Structures
1.
Amino acid sequence: MGAETMRRAGWCRGLLVALLWLVASLVLGGVTANAAQGEPLPHQLRYCPPGVTPDTASALEQCNLRQRPADQGQRLDNAPQRMRLTITNPTSGPQDARLFIGPYYLASIELFRPAIAAGEAPTDHRLTRVGGGGAFAGGGASSAAIAGHVFPLTLAPGENSFLLRLEAPGFAHLAIRVDSLGDASLSPAPAVLSIGLHLGMIAALAGLALVSVILRPGPVSNRLFVLITVILIQVALGSGVLPTLLPALPGQLAMTAFMMLIMLRMATWGWLYQALIQPHYDRPWYRLGCRISYAVAGVASLFYLLEWLVAARLLSLLLILAVPILHTVAGLCAPTRIRLFKQALVGSLIIYDLLQIIAIVLLVSYSGQSDLPVVISRVLDLAIPLLAMGTVLLRNRASDQQLAAAEQELARSEAQLAAETAAREEKRLLLDMLTHEIRNPLATIKLASRALQGQASTAGPTVQRRLVNIDRGIRTIDAVIERCDLHNRIEETGITPERGSVNLHRLIHELIERYGLLDRVRVTGGERPVVLTDAQLLETLLGNLLDNAAKYSPPGSPIDVVILTSPWGVRVSNRIEPDMVPDPEQLFERYYRHAHARRLGGSGLGLALSRRIAELLEGTLVPRIEAERIHFEFRVEDD
């Protein structure tokens, strides 16, 4: 198992190296392609002040703000934004050009320029619409392109002013490029290459995650693959790849799906890290926080579907800030035994937090014409799965090491268990052999003793006493043999109790008489003449308790037997000498005997056997040691 896991891990590492080589090659190719495109035409972007709605060339000149108005930049809805775009044609004649405006997910774009009419002064030229588009127009619109929107223009010599009207959030960034057509095609080759490279890298990561699912299926691998797949679909929608490939796809619905996928991406990221953290930190507050984040993501998605954009974007910002903090705190608190895994987990979370903070700062600071927000968003698109994949790989590696150690420990335990089983079997065979060898001569001694008792009826008291002692010793050895045999049968083969009606009073008095304790035992308690239990096992248990009380109590001291009811049971109590108090922790261990009690004989199996019998009878045997007395209480719950 360990070798197979290592082989799979080596394969995955090889694929990762191949992926990195591919990415490096594509990056170099992209740099070369961009360098070959040449310099774009010079252009300048200026924002219109609040309240200015230019409809003539002179009104358009009022749009001269270098920064986006503050109140406009803070808006979360798709409010109209107006700006003046000035493009310079350095040639002496008209020139065909293309205007690229990105990113693709800008909701609506309209382009206006002054119309030249005879007899009008240049400042009185009315603004006429040149073209329009945007994500809401769909991938089938003439201006739709991968990564943005393209508008063909004819530029007069010198400066050409245009009114650019957008509908997008106030913090939306812009990427504007103007190229002379010349021999170039109308598609923005650098942007297409960049998006293709970006999607290719994410798709490669999804392929690696799929390999992990196939080789090592489980919640973590499955969630990682779902996360990367969601990122891939989201980027494909937001970049315009899917809308342009599927022009029949409704534009507004596609962009709503794009925003909902951002929420799903956030929830899936948290879902993945919950699978990594919760096995090590399953606290109620963490589980509740995860559930709340999923619920907020669902509510935000519903708001996007209902076009409640302000509330939806506020919840999105809350999720982007709160979810990473939630998992980072839980990761720091998780008491994992694998140091490397915790370092990777916490490190990936901290890096993710920093990238999110940088993304938000760039989005707020460079909300105008800048590619920095695009760059950081693409870094996040790749960093999120890479960090998660690295953490998962380290976690799997640590799990493999733990599994290998557990397998070694299991092998050692199995070997030890086999040795113990063999030793126990040898001991059982030895006991069986010894008891068999003892029983034959013991039976001979018993027959001889009975014959002598019949012949020595007229003998003196000394002879009679010796014969009684011989008979008592024979019964003691018989009891030890039966005890060992019963213990072996219980431990090795098991015994199924056979329930029947047992007269508890009669059984106790028979045992008292059998053990010669009529003058020492006092029987008290409630009236419970008949109980339903196994007669033989109950007789063995109570006999052991009475024998133990008689053997280890001071000679001639009273023994109390109390019959209990509701639930039924028996309590046996006797006095003990201070130097004969047993160790409560070892009282029911096999072969345990007090150091001062060893001179009294016995096998040390009586109490261990009694507790096992109590369990078979579905009861309990509980000791209680006082200053000068010891009590053993056996109870069985009534059916």
2.
Amino acid sequence: MRGSRRRRSTLVVALALVAGLGATVPAHADDPAYPFRNPSLTVDQRVDDLLGRLTLDEKISLLHQYQPAIPRLGIPSFRTGTEALHGVAWLGETTVFPQAIGLASSWDPALLEQVGSAVGDEARGFQQERPAGWGLNLWAPVVNPLRDPRWGRNEEGYSEDPQLTGALSTAYGEGLTGGDPDHLKTAPTIKHYLANNNEWHRTTTDSELRPRVAKEYDEAAFKPAIEADAATGVMSSYNLVNGRPNTVNPDLNDLVRSWSSHDLLNVTDAAGPGNLHGDQKYYPSVMEGDAAAIKAGIDSFTDNDADSSVTTGAVKSALEKGLLKEADVNEAAGHILSVRVRLGEFDPGGGRYGSIDKSVINSPAHQRLARKAATEGAVLLKNQSGTLPLKTSQKDIAVVGPLADTLYTDWYSGTLPYAVTPAKGIAAKLGTDVATSEGVDRIALKNTATGKYITTGDALLKETAQTPTAPAQFDVSDWGAGVVTLRSAVSGKYVGYNWSGFADDQTQPGGWFVQQQFKLEQQADGSYLLRYAGYETEESWWTNPVYVGPTGADGTLGLVSKEQAAHYTKDVVRSGVDEAVAAVRGKDAAVVVVGSTPSINGREGHDRTDMGLAPAQEALVKAVRKANPKTVVVVENSYPTTLGALQQDVPALLWTSHAGQETGNALADLLYGDANPSGRLTQTWYRSESDLPSILDYDIIKSDRTYQYFKGQALYPFGYGLSYTSFRYGDLRRTADGFEVKVTNTGGRAGDEVVQLYTHQRVSRDKQPLKQLKAFQRVALKPGQTKTVRLKLSPKDLAHWDVTRSKWVTEKGTYDVLAGASSADIRARTTWKVAGETIPARDLTRTTRAENFDDYDRTHLVDESKERGTAVSAASDGAWLKFGDARLGTGAAQFTARVAGSSGTVEVRLGSPTGTLAGTATFGGTASPYTYETVTADLSRAAKGRTDVYLVLKGAGLRLSTFSLR
């Protein structure tokens, strides 16, 4: 099978001699004459040679994230997993590029490849020192489609569209690899396979994927980078898909490896293997879980941090018990070694990229690239009456808001080598100081019972002050969903819980446990309870909500129950709104920078429960707008925001992600017209959370998710973004390999247009997208300039997954082909008659998998066995499956099905779930949901002709895997 190579467990010297690998046995194990150190040999030859020299224990040692050195062969240690989503993370100061969602908003594959190349260089830059946590196997990019904007990790992905995601991830990956799969700069691993788009109970929630959704949507985002050799493997995700944990998803071997002709190194997410016998309870022991993961296609275990003994011990036990064979270990070790060979590890001098050193890190060229990326990724959402760009004569301005003079980094960010904030960038642009204000209240909290204020100045916060002096004052910032942060007015640092008490010791909210989160809960008497909200989830990380109150005789604050919580008055020492209004009044313009901190209200482990802008921030914008009509709002966050009435109230809106060290310079360039906004949204911006179904509903087709199926009115549609110039589209014409359209810059400024090509299938056997992106191209145009934009599109690009025959099919018919500036702004269109095929009526005389239904109600997709396969389970009595347009001919006499689990019946009905009853099969149940039995039922004479067949399942928990009507 393509991409899978069963390797020999030993190397016979005689065979090596015949192959010309060397005529003598080297005197030392690390002698360069050894074949595995010979770069003139093929990768397979080198790997086979090295595998043959390793003992079984040494091969097993390679299967953990922390691979030890093998001194006798001169092989150094190796580690999988350096984070590199938008720069090298966790190793200190590196170039910090915009978040992945910001990079993607450029719609510029060439830029993504340049950024990927820079990140790859910087990863190599550490190779001479090899600091803890460093490695050349990079865990990036994230290619999970952004199907739900409430996902806590939205910032890590690219788009809700798999076509765009695939194009951008391929470009970024090609930059990381260097473009030659046999000589890798770095070895990127794309994550998280598969259907991983919620954080709520992420290790136990089940993403149910019907075949069409799996093939057309989730898998489609992963395949391009693997197929293009722009990634060297995938990371399995925490969640389950159709009842089976992704750590043992057979796709890893059966499907993902088929996409590449090169060996892939597949890894688990951190602690993923332990979940199999832990909270997932899928296997009874580490041994059985690890063995199953290897057989499914996992090569490297990320578990128990640096302690590899649990994994290696489990693998050895599995070998002893016969759950694994040495060939299984050889296969996994061979995949790992293939990547290490291709990284040049065993080449003289470290291979093609072995000389790169730290001089590349945060180089001037990378700083310029970071500024370009931050500029291209910003999206102009609104520009009423030419509010933007500002004129250089508008120098007397104010930059206000909670993000006006600070930059925030996310969990997977590197350390900023410097920080150009919006205020600093604009000041540098104008060559003069600008007025600033965070616009947040400064408060003091007084215990109503004791009259004492919470104060700083000692190791831990205490209630000591009798008056609200500076040590008793805190800046309170609203980040939405009721969460606020408190920052000491004296130290300028954030207050957080440190497991002993509360201290003002953090420069920014952050860490895995974000312990700088609070909620001020107003009581009926006007007082407030200070609730500790550090790392709360929807169900609370703590057993019960906890609050703040004095717990020591000296007034030291600690965690208490609600009943024990102190009641505080909130004394406003300084009004943030008043200060901001004073700063902007009479100015030439006001720039308000609002948004999020990536550690709060949406991050790994915590989905967003509120899609709106923080109420205090919205109030700030309204007040500033009232004080100065020339107000420009910059929204700096990691996801779509509902924005409420704000979108109507302000004349100009510009969105940016947390865009890294050059954020301020990029914003200044855009606001003052030195750069023309050219970013486009890669997600639908909804008007309300009510536009979305449950975050756990993964069936984008049935639930009408994303721009492809959403029938409502978006706040801003997929692909949207404004420019300071205008563009005219000519006619859309068919070419030999696609379509072309002439685009003219009809405005007075140079600008980039992102030409987007969509299709719509007019008639189909199956429900089709309203529109579907098929190609795009970013084109730069000077004023008055016209360019012909050519976009490739072939009939096979129109294919969808035919569940009746489990194959890709392009249907015969007429397709609308649409070119435009967004999914909702179509400027040119034509039709295309495609000579495809007609999907025939279903042949249910053949054994049909139950998962290949056309519609369903009250069912679940479940694991047919622990190893592979998907079955359908009744969630409640009366669940049904539709198998449309079935050809029963002159009559089907018998219904046969494979069923398991709870007892019940399977009714065969015609035309509808309550239509003519053609037969009923009765099932007595099996002790195990994985033990299947065959049941049959005689069918009435009505079971004939061409009709829709419904299977109605009576009995919750009854499982159906396959059936036929003959």
3.
Amino acid sequence: MSLPPGFMDELRSRTSLAQVVGRKVMWDQRKSNQGKGDMWAPCPFHQEKSASFHVDDRKGFYYCFGCHAKGDLFSFVQETENVGFMEAVEILAREAGMQMPARDPKAQEKTDHRAKLAEVMEQAVQFFRLQLKTGGAAAAREYLAGRGLSGAALDRWEIGFAPDGWQGLWDHLTGKGVAEELILGAGLAKPSNQGKRPYDTFRNRIMFPIRDVRGRCIAFGGRAMDPNDNAKYLNSPETDLFDKGRSLYNHGPAREAAGKGQPLIVAEGYMDVIALSEAGLAASVAPLGTAVTEDQVRLLWRMHDEPVIALDGDKAGLRAALRVIDIALPMLEAGKSLRFCLMPEGLDPDDLIRAEGAGAMRKLVEGAVPMVRLLWQRETEGRVFDSPERRAALDLSLREAVRKIADPSIRRHYGDELNRLRRALFDQGGPGRARGMGRPFAMGRGGRFAGPATPMVETKASALAAEGAAFEDRLREAVILATLLRHRSLLPEFVADLERLDTTDPDHAAVQGALLYLAGDGSLEIETLCPPHALEKVHAPAHVRIAPGVQPHATEDVARMSLAEEFAKLTARRGAEREIAEAIEDVEGLVDEGLTWRLGQAAEARAAAERSGQEDRAEYDTGPNGARIRREEKSAFSALLDRIDFAKSGRREP
């Protein structure tokens, strides 16, 4: 219904948020300042001992620094009383002595209709419960007893039985004067396509009432007794009462138990929830035979910060768990996530509890893994990464997954954790690791490449990897990164080169990862993707500040040429180093002359790669084939020759 102008303002002026909240919490007198309306208390929405829940009575808002719950007067009543917005308004208006405006006739009509449907559903609950005690339900009772359910448990869960007839419930309800349109509207019967009387939706099934968070029966779930039935489990169709994508089995009791500190467990079916609750794990729910939806994830987070997904230990259960990841990734917030409890293969929670007891189930729940681990398992399990192409495919899939996360802070933390898992997989000889492939690229912030994590073995082995060359490399890396920071429009053009950039500094790697993420999502600020000190370090060297592409008035063309030159020089020099390293590895297979020639050619290649605008100030000697070699390179080359033990290889020194 619509409310007249000024009604809500008047209600707010008559109502104190601190007074309303004070009925649910104990104020911390040491932190609170009642005179200023600045009140603190333990949060009513999650279990805690410290007073992290803040109420600003003057502004009319509350916020929890622990679970991040926030809102105003009306949202607080909605959350704590499990009511809708208009019902919250009614509660507060009644307490404030205000008369509610006349309702919209259509809205009132809809509310009244839903109330009538709920009454019909309660009559159906009683009918099914009575039917379970009849002779026709002997097989159903035997089945339930075999599942370990006592008579008291059957009563607690209001389990019933739908008889094997076409109009059993229909005849019962119409005989009590229930209107036919209400029976059909509640989803308890279906119209006949052959012009006959409507027939019951549920026949020859064990019946489980489904109640909303307020305790109203809104639907049923039925388990077929006939093994040849087309559907083993059948839920009520969607009605004005029932939206299966926004409902959870055992919602109300689970919310109460979760509020008392129990772990919130999401199981697959009714019997799993019943078995968990009967075993003492009362905060258990099920998603009503469908894949978990976004609305259901929100319902779960309203009950608990980290619900535990405990689906069956078969392929279907694992697929369902993996689908939940894709649903939840874009919705992640600070402190709000999911954990996964993978059941033993072939078992569901009910099977495990009956076989090994409640303790075994509790142990699995306590050991539930965070969602990032299951995401990693999904992308890597059963796959072999014995080639660069396969590893690149893994990197791509991880980046695509992390890109779904909207929160930039969580996105960075996911990138960091996936980076760590990736290094552990490849650095420790993970599946399909090929010899001589070098170290893998690390996943940076946002799931992007952030450069190699450890120095390359080949580079360590090369005598040319003196500090001077390493320092020059870092300068070139800094120039490349600083140029791309200033000219981000060039990122798409150089993204492939940037991914291949073998950064030698952790801060450079952080900036590299951030730039790669911006290449895919340019809406973010660089400062949110990498630490400020990394950006400062990139721009700090004087050589960087005078680089052509970094100058304040540098055009895009100048920046493009500068980037192309720096990438080419780094690639050429590092390629020469690898050539020299390979020459050393191959020394046993070359004659003396061949070795000398190959090392000479490698040194020439490196010298050529190093030449720049400063080469006129360098001192050169003449090398093999008349090529000029910088004296520092000649010294390094001589040192390399000195390292080779010709006597050990059975050769004479040249």
4.
Amino acid sequence: MPPNPPVMSVRDLRVAFGATEAVHGLSFDIHRGETLALVGESGSGKSATALSILRLIEREGGQITGGTIRLGGTRPANITSLRASELRALRGDRVAMVFQEPMTSLNPVMTIGAQICETLSLHRGLHGAAAREAARAALERVKVPEPAQRLNQYPHELSGGLRQRVMIAMALTCEPEVLIADEPTTALDVTTQAEILRLIASLQREMGMAVLFITHDLGVVSEIADRVVVLKDGLKVEEGFTADLFASPRADYTKELMAASPRLGEGAPVPLDNPAPVLQVNGLTTTYGGGLFARASAKAAVRDVSITLGRGETLGLVGESGCGKSTLARSIMRLVTPSAGEITLLGNRIDGLSRAALKAHRSHIQMVFQDPYASLNPRMSICDVVTEPAFLHGMVNRTDRKAMALDLLARVGLPADAVDRYAHQFSGGQRQRICIARALSVRPQIIVADEAVSALDVSNARRITDLMADIQKRDGVSMLFISHDIAVVERVSHRIAVMLNGQIVETGPTDRVLHDPQHSYTQRLLASVPRVAARHTPLRVAGAHPVDA
């Protein structure tokens, strides 16, 4: 078989942000019909490489300082030397990109139809009814239900999974030669993730396009990638066919990534023996919408939920996006007001308390959110950030705040010099540690962690969950751990509750629920979990082989 020339070749790519070089001499090829995965921790250079391929890195303050990025095929092009007008013609036509968070990538004030038609007008010269019909067909191709109606909707009216399908539809409208998928499933639950991955794979087979898949999820890599490039601090440390690399990784860093990656079936903490309850929820219902004159339009996001959390116990809460997990957490925190039911915190009913009366109880239960950067005030020093809850509750005075901050930062493994810095000066994993330190400042009995590690790479996620486990053992803190990553939930949870359409459909000790699931929905969830395994059969495209940097 004659060699298959690459559809894209990256040679000795160097990318810098000011005086700091983020990518150091990276080289790789991608062939037609092949999926190449770029993996590595946050800051390894994955996204900088992707943005460089589309020459979007300049918009982020970066610059390509060396190397070449070439497109092959019948119209060869050196992307690194194209003019602005040539780049506009190339983006979305020959090379397209799907980003991690579709809500920030889609225009919130334009309908879905208008955004797809804009791409068709620019690259295919379609307008009016012809463009609209092509847009409808594009949504139908990616299996968006009721595509004609979706054309008139805005991004906020769609679920996360549907928004990602819209992004894929837009990216594939012009049938690109290369699709760059930058963490496209990180924020999705396992069933939606499985659907998106199957969709990308089927469209790839149909169109014969090459896919550059950027992710920190090795389970996803082992299922979809033909070859893998491992990056660390902007350097390629290993490259190879997926099955070969997973069976016998050569680089120590690759071995560390695999060791940190959660695997379903590794075992769960031993259930506690009848711990005293610190939180009891009975018949909780939370309704959105409706109102005094529109009761028929009201929707129950949480319906008749009852759970118990014991002292020093972790209860894992799992389920698809939109099932009501976060609403349940926010209802327990009384950040939203339940419509019915009882919430008993440390023996006190809090469901009917006024906002003023709640203040005395808020120190007992604290929340750690998914996005640590959005949770931290960028104008406040870390000293003020981590001690603010304690200061507001009168547990520390102004003169003692720095001493408390130093103690809290030490407890979560951050250096003392962090105390006078600001949130933007820290990595995602470090910012999440700061959020945990802040929650600990009031010595809570319960921490609610709402997707607290879903946006982190596997190494940082492991460090954060290990930290939370250490805090629990040391302080006896109880945790409600919400996540769509069931392997992570298994590692940290004594018990699991499975949520579907606002209701708890199954609950029990973690090992029992995961190894002998009783409900069909739990069984479907578990079947969708990607497994880290060397069982993928590589495409072995003729001519595809590891490239030396």
